[in-house]
UniProtKB/TrEMBL annotation:
Residues 252-283 have a biased composition (Basic and acidic residues). GO terms for cellular component: mitochondrion. It comes from Physeter macrocephalus (Sperm whale). InterPro entries: Beta-lactam-related, Beta-lactam/transpept-like, Mito_Ser_Protease_LACTB. It comes from the Eukaryota. Residues 61-104, 250-292 are annotated as: Disordered. GO terms for molecular function: peptidase activity. GO terms for biological process: proteolysis; regulation of lipid metabolic process. Residues 120-505 form the Beta-lactamase-related domain. Residues 65-88 have a biased composition (Pro residues). This is Serine beta-lactamase-like protein LACTB, mitochondrial isoform X2.
Length: 529
């Protein structure tokens, strides 16, 4: 302390006294005041030094070591810092990928765990990009993009990214069918020829069979799907190529025979006989055009996107509108303003590119595909936000009938409760390929609530549909809340979790991931007071 005071006093008495004292002495002389002596200047410097020293010493005595910073609790959301004065507030850097503060605090744990899970899935399958959206009780609480929507141009995925939703398109088409059924314009149980008379009648084992709209919806009509046997596909392509090549060779041979005229008659006769023999063999081996179903209607499940193309024709005839025009009306009603049919020519904002790995495990762009032949079964583009709106509209219609007694002011659902109950009721003889615990219903897969043993696994009721297309995978999952009397009396629909995930890589199974995410958010909500 003595050294500190001496240093301050000396500095003030020397440098300070010269700079300050000389100026003051000149001013006094100009004003006619008595001259200031060096003793007065030194005393002033000493006083200033003592004052500074006492203040500094007091600060050192009063200071105490800062308390150690507490380790952050992984399950406690970070506290918001106090706001700055208005004049110092920085411009907000808002991002659509950042949840609102309220939702971030309420579902911080679920968001962190779900994000980590998606990173793992993305890394495991090597997907360029993936986008997720989650809503709780009808409110979107989280949407985020991981990776790239366009690898070549380094365009990141974001909630607004538009991708192929593939077979989720079937669930959208089901809404059009349901609206027509509710209006009495469509009968689900009469032959499809009533609406599309040009569609040929089918037969099974020599007997005519009746294909209905209901059977088409649940994939029980017997109409075939894509050819899955790639060896068979390659053989058919090779056969067609050989047929074209032989046709060219035959015309050349016949032309050559005519030019040569009567020369080498023996060789000419042999060549003609060879051509006739080849033609006869091709006639025996060619496959006749079949009008048969693969099986008797209603007896077996065969997933068929082609069946939904026929359903699109039925929608057109029953509604009086073009299929796409009718669907756009539905999208407008549901506020799904970024959901459109996939076409190559239009400029679609935020459309992602689609990828696949080649034989050398290098990422490449997928080839061009024309989805106009299957818009109803797998040809729409959308965002996770639009899919959440669609899922919540279905959930609202499913639950609103339960809440009507306690609140008569509720608006009706887009589809009636009895319609949604029919749509989400599992159909016998069907399968749910993305979850073996469930069954296919009407354009949705449904898992029913079940518990076989006490204190063991409890199966939750949910509805979902996955999608797989060239360079794309998707899922939309709806997990309804298990409602009790208190919830019905004090709350409003929709009640439950909706999860949508889209990815620009094909053959990525996402249903199990979506279910895990839904259960994480359901757990966070259940833990809240």
């Amino acid at each position: 302390m003595y050294r500190l005071l001496s240093a301050v006093t000396t500095r003030a008495a020397t440098h300070g006294s010269c700079a300050w004292g000389c100026g003051r002495r000149a001013a006094h002389q100009r004003a006619g005041l008595p001259p200031i002596g060096p003793g007065w200047v030194g005393g002033l410097g000493l006083g200033l030094g003592l004052a500074l020293g006492v203040k500094l010493a007091g600060g050192l005595r009063g200071a105490s070591p800062a308390p150690p910073t507490a380790a952050p609790d992984p399950e406690t959301p970070p506290q918001a810092e106090p706001p700055l004065p208005p004049q110092e507030q920085p411009l907000a850097q808002w991002s659509p990928q950042t949840p609102t503060p309220l939702h971030s605090r309420r579902f911080a744990r679920a968001i962190d765990r779900s994000r980590d899970l998606l990173h793992r899935i993305k890394d495991e399958v090597g997907a360029p990009g993936i986008v997720v959206g989650v809503s709780v009780d009808g409110k979107e609480v989280w949407s985020e993009g991981l990776g790239y929507a366009d690898v070549e141009n380094r365009v990141p995925c974001k909630p607004e990214t538009v991708m192929r939703i593939a077979s989720i398109s079937k669930s959208l088409t089901m809404v059009a069918i349901a609206k027509l059924w509710e209006a009495g314009k469509l009968d689900l149980d009469i032959p499809v020829q009533h609406y599309v008379p040009e569609f040929p009648e089918k037969e099974y084992e020599g007997e005519k069979v009746s294909v209905t709209t209901r059977l088409l919806i649940s994939h029980l009509s017997g109409i075939r799907h894509y050819e899955k046997d790639m060896k068979k596909v390659k053989e058919e392509k090779a056969y067609k190529a050989l047929k074209m090549m032989k046709g060219t060779m035959e015309s050349d041979q016949e032309k050559e025979l005519k030019e040569k005229g009567g020369k080498n008659n023996e060789k000419n006769d042999f060549a003609k006989a060879k051509i006739e023999q080849d033609n006869e063999a091709k006639g025996r081996n060619s496959k006749p055009c079949k009008k048969k179903n693969d099986f008797e209607q209603g007896s077996q499940f065969l997933y068929s996107t082609f069946g939904y193309t026929l359903l699109a024709a039925i929608v057109e005839r029953a509604s009086g509108y073009k299929y796409l025009d009718y669907m756009q009306k539905i999208f407008h009603d549901l506020d799904m303003l970024t959901t459109v049919q996939e076409e190559n020519e239009p400029v679609i904002y935020n459309r992602a590119r689609f990828y696949v790995y080649n034989k050398k495990r290098r990422l490449v762009n997928t080839p061009y595909v024309d989805n106009s032949y299957k818009w109803a079964g797998g040809g729409f583009l959308s965002t996770v936000g639009d899919l959440l709106k669609f899922g919540n509209a279905m959930l609202y219609g499913y639950q609103v009938g339960l809440f009507k007694n306690s609140n008569e002011n509720l608006l009706p659902g887009y589809l009636k409760p009895e319609t949604m109950l029919m749509i989400w009721t599992p159909v016998p003889n069907t399968e749910m390929s993305w979850d073996k615990e469930g069954k296919y219903a009407m354009a949705w897969g449904v898992v029913e609530k079940k518990q076989t043993y006490g204190s063991c696994r409890k199966q939750r009721h949910y509805a979902s549909h996955t999608g797989g297309a060239v360079g794309a995978s998707s899922v939309l999952l709806v997990l309804p809340e298990e409602l009790d009397a208190e919830a019905i009396n004090n709350k409003f629909p929709p009640r439950g979790i909706v999860v949508s995930i889209i990815c620009n890589m094909q053959s990525v199974g996402l249903n199990n991931t979506a279910l895990k995410i839904a259960l994480e958010f359901d757990k966070d909500r259940s833990d809240m007071p």
